[in-house]
Amino acid sequence: MTQHRMVNIVMIEDDEGHARLIEKNIRRAGVNNTIRHFTDGTSAMEYLFNSPDGPSKNGPALVLLDLNLPDMSGTDILVRMKADGPLKRTPVVVLTTTDDKVEIQRCYDLGANVYITKPVNYESFAQAIRQLGLFLSVIEVPDVEDETP
Question: How much is the pTM?
Answer without folding.
Answer: 0.82
